[in-house]
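USER: My hope is that you can spare some time for a protein that puzzles me. I am handing you a single protein, as its sequence and its fold in token form. Walk me, if you will, through where the backbone shape changes along the chain. The protein I mean follows directly.
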Amino acid sequence: MTNSGESFESYVEYVYRTLLNLHGENIVVARRATVFDTRGNAYNIDVFYEFVTAGIRHRVAIECKDTKRPIERDEAIAFVGKIRDMPSTIGILISKNGFQQGAKKYLQDHGVTHLAGNDLPSFGSVLGKIVATVALPDEKAIGQPFWTIMELRNSKITGNWMTLPNNGKILPLFYSRYQAQQFFDACHFDASTACVRGVEQQTLRFVVSAAPDSGTNFAILHPVEKDGSLQFMVIEYSADEIRDEYLIS
């Protein structure tokens, strides 16, 4: 990276740390960090942050580019591949001189946030929205392809997923809001402490990558009528199986 690039990277680190510290977050900040993927491969990351919100550990890997030309598609592909193999990590690619259309489309298709140099003043608010989407999906979130049940406290989502009754390590998934609501009603969840939420791809990707750290598995539940009563067929999945079958690569 050129001297101007190093200056650009320093500016990103300064903006990010300053804005988030204003919100009282306890953040680990590292510049030019060495981060390992799930296969043990080491990557150098320009700026790396780690923090916990709503009981969920978030890792954010930021790569800063200060090239004379906009970022090309091949560079976007390389960054997405790197982030995909890092556990529990959100990737952000920043290019001082923007992105070629092919690169921008590839990043958009893979749900990776990308910012140009003139976007930096809004960097803090952009990051806040990313974290909120992952940890705190609102009622407008659409299941892609799943729905689940999340904890409420004082009418607000806490970020915690409700687990299967009598099993604190299995997160239930449903193919529709209606099926999730059927399970919600059948298990007599309290509407003041729990609610049905859609699981978007970005949220699913993050939760799947974080699951192995806590020994969490998943279960897809199917409602069935048996002997005149509603029951649920439970099919368990590992995090790897959910990733391979349901995440958009």
